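Practice problem 4.
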């Protein structure tokens, strides 16, 4: 008996949700448009990544690109951060010539120093009741 009372309420919620989905999708083809939107977003990501790689190719020497790609295999987030620093520097005109492998190594060392976690371990020895110095 409770199920029949809940059904009109659930149906109203479903109807509202369907209207919201249809409103977002622009009508009956909501699923098709969301796929199209998703494909468009993926295409934009690919284009942005291609643009990024072209910019890096202009700024980095071939040796530096190789080293950065090797770093990306092991630590992709670190490589991405270094790429960001290099691209930002190039956009602001701070890089006037191609970044050599040696300069890339210097950048990596600077970033490592800035992001290095410093831990300190303190060992405290517990005194035993039977350890009297007397």
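Answer key:
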């Amino acid at each position: 008996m409770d199920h029949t009372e809940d059904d009109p309420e659930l149906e109203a919620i479903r109807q509202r949700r369907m209207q919201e989905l249809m409103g977002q999708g622009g009508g009956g083809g909501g699923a098709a448009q969301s796929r199209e939107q998703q494909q468009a977003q993926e295409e934009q990501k690919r284009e942005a990544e291609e643009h990024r790689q072209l910019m890096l190719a202009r700024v980095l020497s071939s040796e530096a690109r190789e080293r950065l790609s090797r770093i990306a295999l092991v630590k992709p987030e670190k490589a991405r951060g270094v790429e960001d620093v290099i691209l930002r520097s190039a956009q602001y005109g701070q890089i006037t010539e191609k970044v050599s492998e040696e300069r890339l190594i210097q950048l990596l060392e600077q970033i490592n120093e800035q992001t290095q976690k410093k831990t300190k371990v303190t060992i405290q020895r517990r005194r035993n009741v039977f350890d009297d110095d007397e």
